[in-house]
Amino acid sequence: MGDDSEWLKLPVDQKCEHKLWKARLSGYEEALKIFQKIKDEKSPEWSKFLGLIKKFVTDSNAVVQLKGLEASLVYVENAHVAGRTTGEVVSGVVSKVFNQPKAKAKELGMEICLMYIEIEKGEAVQEELLKGLDSKNPKITVACTETLRKALSEFGSKIILLKPIIKVLPKLFESREKAVRDEAKLIAVEIYRWIRDALRPPLQNINSVQLKELEEEWVKLPTGAPKPSRFLRSQQELEAKLEQQQSAGGDADGGGDDGDEVPQIDAYELLEAVEILSKLPKDFYDKIEAKKWQERKEALEAVEVLVKNPKLEAGDYADLVKALKKVVGKDTNVMLVALAAKCLTGLAVGLRKKFGQYAGHVVPTILEKFKEKKPQVVQALQEAIDAIFLTTTLQNISEDILAVMDNKNPTIKQQTSLFIARSFRHCTASTLPKSLLKPFCAALLKHITDSAPEVRDAAFEALGTALKVVGEKAVNPFLADVDKLKLDKIKECSEKVELIHGKKAGLASDKKEFKSAPGRTAASGAAGDKETKDSSAPKPGPLKKAPATKAGGPPKKGKPAVPGGTGSTGTKNKKGLDTKEIVEPELSIEICEEKASAVLPSNCIQLLDSSNWKERLASMEEFQKAVELMDRTEMPCQALVRMLAKKPGWKETNFQVMQMKLHIVAVIAQKGNFSKTSAQIVLDGLVDKIGDVKCGNNAKEAMTAMAEACMLPWTAEQVMSMAFSQKNPKNQSETLNWLSNAIKEFGFSGLNVKAFISNVKTALAATNPAVRTSAITLLGVMYLYVGPSLRMFFEDEKPALLSQIDAEFEKMQGQSPPAPTRGISKHTVIGTDEGEDGDEPDEGGSDVVDLLPRTEISDKITSELVSKIGDKNWKIRKEGLDEVAGIINEAKFIQPNIGELPAALKGRLNDSNKILVQQTLNILQQLAVAMGPNIKQHVKNLGIPVITVLGDSKNNVRAAALATVNAWAEQTGMKEWLEGEDLAEELKKENPFLRQELLGWLAEKLPTLRSTPSDLILCVPHLYSCLEDRNGDVRKKAQDALPFFMMHLGYEKMAKATGKLKPTSKDQVLAMLEKAKANMPAKPAAPVKATSKPLGGSATARVQPASVPVEDSVSSTVEPKPDGKKTKALGVSSKAKSAQGKKMPSKTSLKEDEDKSGPIFIVVPNGKEQRMKDEKGLKVLKWNFTNPRDEYIEQLKTQMSSCVAKWLQDEMFHSDFQHHNKALAVMVDHLESEKEGVIGCLDLILKWLTLRFFDTNTSVLMKALEYLKLLFTLLSEEEYHLTENEASSFIPYLILKVGEPKDVIRKDVRAILNRMCLVYPASKMFPFIMEGTKSKNSKQRAECLEELGCLVESYGMNVCQPTPGKALKEIAILIGDRDNAVRNAALNTIVTVYNVHGDQVFKLIGNLSEKDMSMLEERIKRSAKRPSVAPIKQVEEKPQRTQSISSSANMLRKGPSEDMSSKLNHARSMSGHPEAAQMVRREFQLDLDEIENDNGTVRCEMPELVQHKLDDIFEPVLIPEPKIRAVSPHFDDMHSNTASTINFIISQVASGDINTSIQALTQIDEVLRQEDKAEAMSGHIDQFLIATFMQLRLIYNTHMADEKLEKDEIIKLYSCIIGNMISLFQIESLAREASTGVLKDLMHGLITLMLDSRIEDLEEGQQVIRSVNLLVVKVLEKSDQTNILSALLVLLQDSLLATASSPKFSELVMKCLWRMVRLLPDTINSINLDRILLDIHVFMKVFPKEKLKQCKSEFPIRTLKTLLHTLCKLKGPKILDHLTMIDNKNESELEAHLCRMMKHSMDQTGSKSDKETEKGASRIDEKSSKAKVNDFLAEIFKKIGSKENTKEGLAELYEYKKKYSDADIEPFLKNSSQFFQSYVERGLRVIEMEREGKGRIPTSTGISPQMEVTCVPTPTSTVPSLGNTNGEDVGPSVYLERLKILRQRCGLDNTKQDDRPPLTSLLSKPAVPTVASSTDMLHSKLSQLRESREQHQHSDLDSNQTHSSGTMTTSSSSTANIDDLKKRLERIKSSRK
Known about the structure:
By secondary structure, the protein is an all-alpha fold. Helix 3 packs parallel to helix 6. The protein is globular and about 160 Å long. The chain starts with a helix and ends with a helix. The relative contact order is 0.03. Residues about 250-265, about 505-580, about 825-850, about 1090-1155, about 1425-1535, about 1805-1825, about 1895-1930 and about 1950-2015 have low confidence and may be disordered.
């Protein structure tokens, strides 16, 4: 008890950690009580338990754990610090709670997870749960899925991110566990509830049954939008609110809220993007230009297939689009035009907004192509242009469309109008502003008067659609001149129109409208939200103002607002038209008086025009009181202001009355529903009084009130035009002052800047200085909103005036525009104009877009100018740039279309002349200002390259680049720059200047943004690497930028991103993150206007980035999306990335050639020697690094400058990988022509190539390896020797690449290593490769080991450096490596050494652990190869160079006399495959071992293997070579080179390495295809087929299951195998060499392949299966007919016996047999019938008739009968003479069957009289004895049934059957049990044997059909000694029987010799007699790789045969047996001789 009291005293937290479970239980209980008592969530008590909560949930004692879970739940619910424990606790719950059997524990675990989500830790919880889904324990998977489902159901899809869950769903559906699949189904249903059909595409590939079940469940779901039932802490108030609403029965808010949710996930977002650019056919661009239309069609079809992928990865599609555009525009074949249009559709659909940048290029071409009449072309073009429209905005392509509207061709006009109509349907009132509508309406109005009816109809439809979208108020001004008939037609069309968003015209909540903006397809708005972001991005204005838009003009003013109307897109009423407000027509003075008298006191009206000013004043006071008391709805504004304007009106002389009057106007404007009609009545008067000293202020007050009622833009325009139409300078200056003030109060949005500017110019020219001053003040205010571009309009003013303007602007600089305080009127009307005009002011405001007509300069950017800019001569390039600058200056404002200028300018950004770079940067700054926000579309192709220039080494160039970037960002906002991966790519470049400038720029810009695109996360990994950069400035800038990144991304995401860092780096970075967290600034607040114009006009966006881009106003919708992008791997291939930046057409590369003639490598005498001296003397850095630092690169640059052409050097050290590729291509071209130069610069070339090995770009690496292969071939031809310096600075880096994950790269590296041995001694290579085995990369270790093995094999033991002992010890250590491939490689290498060196190896490798030693011994044993005297190639340090290239033909014909030493080279260069080099070196057994490791098939089949050697002994063709060979001194003479090489290559076919195998197959195929060489394969056919089906088995068992392997590789391998076999089986002489066993296994392999469902699922799987079909037919027709028939019979027997075999398999075997039966009439004479009948006999023995009848299918019995029937038919009675090989014929069912058949056929064919006689006899017989017979048989069966007389009964039945051989006892047996039937059969058989005098076998050994024992024979004996039915041992007779058969087969008793295998004891028991399977031949054949078939003549057979047969037949059953066997062997030998 002492112990107990011990822990009782401990404090709670210590009890919780106690090792006694009771203590912990008590601790948890107390903790629970404490937790429940703490009321303050911030209490310090909580922190004490912070580290313990994980232990609470992971307690090892189940009871204690339950209590711990309860406590944890309370903790998480109440503690403010609980969030910190999320990761560890949830991970603990997943691993230790979800696997518990107790439901309660699981429940609590789930509750804890959900509670964490509630306290805002959803992301961390979800991450852990998703990890749990990968658990091997299905319980955990189920629980995690269930928790996720619950979380989604309760919290909704806003909190639980669906994309990662959907990603793993298919995997869950494939689970083997039903529980997991069921849970997956439930979560799929739950997800569907939230996102509906967006879930379908990601699940389209799951099992169809599961999909069907899901569909059924989905249908049952309620259609209403789901709502979350549980809320985060921060949303709990919302929950309360929702509950209140529900209790009140209302659900107003909820509904609105859910509107957001439905389109939140777009199916497109859930799909994986597919990269297609690299998959384009290599010759695509040539083909697409080809003259033959068929070739162009092929090219297009290839693209069409690729673009069918629903989501494409972003990339540089410029060239592709250009090519397609050319086909659409210029191809004469309309079919191709349609095809190209389809391709464009696919691109637009797959890329979505990423296609937007190309839209402008394509749209005009498509529209003009509408001249085509063919419906399919028109349809394709329509689909294309509709798809393209969705990727861009109407605004962006409007100019192109309008340009085509004037075309003369009616079809073009019609189709363009129809396209406009379709486009309008995607628009909403806010995305179709007046500025856009106006030009379209003007163009369409021309069309409605067109002579062609189809053009008119199309125009009506388009106008009708516009009318429906924006409402009549907006369109009516443009239709003023249209006659009524046409107007009605337009309205009629409008009614028919159905909008994409299904909204009624003019009424739809704007929020919804925005959400669903241009949907992905005409049918669905599912994609809404992503699209809108795109479609409206360039015009933030209308979106921002959407909420302010007014309801579509309610007919009564007093009506409350309908939320966000859409009919709000009317005009600005510049002409003073009042159409905008249908609400108030102008009233006559009488009506006004009437209305006024109704609301005003009568005396008030009378006194209005009194001549006494006092009366007038009194009247005004009355008037004012009445107005102030009046109700808004009853106030007749127009009537009242008319009364005020009545005489004397605005000519009032008394200032008091006038002041009062003006004040009343202001009150009416504020209090009533004041319309523009009313405003126009009074404005004139107000403007007149604005300059009045006494009344001016009141006039201004009234104007401001009106501006508030009628919107400032309209009021301002009216006021300005009135002020400047009169002469009074005071009025003018005061109007300008009022306007300056109003702009500050109302904000700038919506103002018509153009009109103002002309008025301001008038004012500036005024003589009155006050007017000028006011104008300058107004300009100052406008400058606040518009920015510096405003100055452009006044540049031609006088210098004095300009300096005043500049001074004013100076004052304003740095100020931000004030937040608007007015303009959010209390009534609805105001929304009207502002919303309507959104777009214009936005553009106008935001960047003076559209202030002046923009000039189209694309026509000035001629191709001459572009080529000038790219000229070789820098002066001409400069001229070109000067011209461009001139064009832009002259135009001032330009349209966004600038032709090919971007590509040309981009080329100049990396000009070698820095002055031109600076000039280009200045032009780009100009361009930004001139183009305004439209410059956005060039950010990716011009802006990002400017950022690259920030990495320039010159300070002034960097400064210019920074200024340019800032000028651009000012116009575009930051969103464009931060989207996508481009910025991350720039930051990734390890250029210190670039990094510090870019980080500095980001640090300056990020804090001003309110939100950023999610792609910002892509920069984080590079930001982290900058934090650890060698350069101090980079580190500092990175640290400065860190808090701003965190401000946007949050600490969590940033910390999560450190996961990929090395542990040391991670700790440092996390520490910095913690520090940054403390300094993290708050995001800039949204502009303070809680107003209808969230951004007071987006002009603010530019000057003050705080209010940056659109995404803010839409952030609620945009937010959930970015996740899609986040998940994109950060390391996307740089190809795609740099392609983005490199949109420049390839032309420029030519332009940049300064002067590319002359040699690329300059020969410097002694240059290389000098460099080596420098390195030795440490004057320069030694080329030795783990990662190339900048100083190494700079050093190499310097060294190269003297001996490499300048232009090539620029390419070589360019930052863009494309240039490296170019450099390599040039180097390849010059390789042959500049041998001397190459050798002179070899050290530098190799060093530069080592740098390329550190590039991540695969294409460069491949190119580099290609070059190296050519280089070393050249060097070996030149007999050059690598110097030590060259070798040591190159080989180690090459060896790094041998561990590349890509097969093709590894293969190339190995090929290069092989070639290097020709220029550098292998013994010196050895240590470098040895070093490579110490790498951390397991692939590298394995490959290096293999290479070492190859070296030893080729060059002998002397290559092992420093000594063989040391080297082998190091290799042997790797046998214990943790990686399987490395272990295998180490074993194989040592086995290779053993083959060269023999047992001495064991001394050399020293002591190995027992395990390793046993593995090695096992491997050596299995390699089945004795050491030969010497390696094939005598060790020669000077590597061979002779005959290094030789044709396969020579090689195959080489005679034995030829020198062996060159053999390796021949093998390498065989069939001109230089890559084959390392392939041919590997010994077959190495791969074989891998195969054995992969699937232990070989070992299972050992007994059969033993059997097979017998088979070999009997086959005259296949004489086995001796297993133990006497070492012959004439070794070389005995071999023909050809045979051994073929052996060699065949050995490779079964290799575990796919590439090796393909190489070998290619070589064999070349031999087979050439008739004169094909016979070289003779004698190797079995060996080849064995290797092939070994490979098939390897693919089936290993490769197909290997997920890492590209399935394309496997398909390629299958194609090679099948192709080879088809070639082989077309050569009849070779096909006939295949033996039975081999054919059996081959057919087995092929049929298995045909049934492999995994293949069917692959893209080209069907093709493979078709080829296999073809091959099987060839095998059946061309093989030796006896062998194949025999093989099929045995295969059928095996498949019927094997329980695992599928019925489909047996069915296919039978189909093959039927095919053979069909061939029989032609082949019967070539068939060895005796063998076939023996096979059938064996088959019927294993499968007696009854047993076959029990088969599920009737096919087997039918197949057998058909075969026998055909044989009988063809051979007639002679068939019975062919039973010679069957012993005990009489007991054979076969003989009886044949006899019956013969009899039957005799009956059919005998003479008529015979038949009649027989018939007569039988008839008499029948009549007389049918009754007797039945009685007699009944009697017999009775006897058999009784115990006593059973034997007697059987004897009688036997006699009876013998007498009446055709008597039918079937009816008697039919009713009896199965057992009785088999008993009778067995009994009869036994009697038969006894009677025939063969009764030496005990009765019990009869075959019992019920004993279906299939057993694998034991390795010691081929004769299974399993007990028989009665458990007795099998007697010697069995062996005698076998010997008899063997004797027969050896020709001792029988002349027939054949190659059937020995039958295992046929009589002993029903073990399956097996055909020796070809696997059994492996040892006998493939172990002697280098032996020719003739070997056996020279070899000593004794040892071999004793050895091989002995192993086979040793049996423990009896000693007599051994003698038998000896005798048998003697006979065999003598027969051989």
